[in-house]
Design brief:
Length: 284
Amino acid sequence: MRSKNLFPEKFSQNNQLPIRIVTPGFGHLSPETAAKSGFTSRLQYYFFLFVLDGRSHHIVDLDTIEIGKHELLFALPHQIQEYPATAHGSDYFKLGFDEECLSRLPRQFPFLLNPLNQQKIRFLPTAALRVKAIFEILLGLLSMADTDPDLILAHLNSLLTEINTAYFAADRKPSDQRTEKFIGFKVFVENNLTDHPTIRNIAEELAVSTDSLYQIVKHFSGLSPKEFITNRLILEARRRLHYNERTSVKELAFDLGFNDPDYFSRLFKKVTGKTVAGFFQDLS
């Protein structure tokens, strides 16, 4: 079954897969299509930017991320991305694909849940050369719309394996079980966000004690489980405000599972430093 995170219509460069690659000289949208898309969008797919030379910056969920040589930025479905007005350095690859591509790969890639809360990855020179080579192969394959999808998926699998390895390289001694439990925590939170699950319920779901859950979440995120859930709820509120996806503060609060709009307003101000109305006005 096709995921709800659909690739934008007519973006795909393959007849059978929702995937697109862009370089300085290939794959750019027409000015008309780009204008319709705008500089800010709520992603419906996975996005990657690998800079070979020069520097760039992206704004993801309202945070600015600088990307330099041999660094890669990845952004996830539902995140808000603001495209830079300037070029992505002097040489780069951009890649986008949705859940359908992932569902056809032979393994899962934990980095796509961003358990270490870092969306920028730096590659060592030898790894950067391998990543560049894979991007170049994908570029050649996507230059023809009728390329066999199996060829594209084989190299996409290699690319994501390289990225996954580099992502976790900075945390060389994590317990695999701890990583797995934190990923399980993030998945559970995402799937039950507006139900406001209790820490005890999550710990029971993951078959760990509440103390162990606290230590795991604190290790990977720097936050307590309660702080993590609160920040995720307020981030979702900020995303919806950014796209004006509400008619009132009360409705926004109820949509996010808050029974008390006043409590939601106080929590929003505590986390962001602004009232809901003030935050919305800044975006207008």
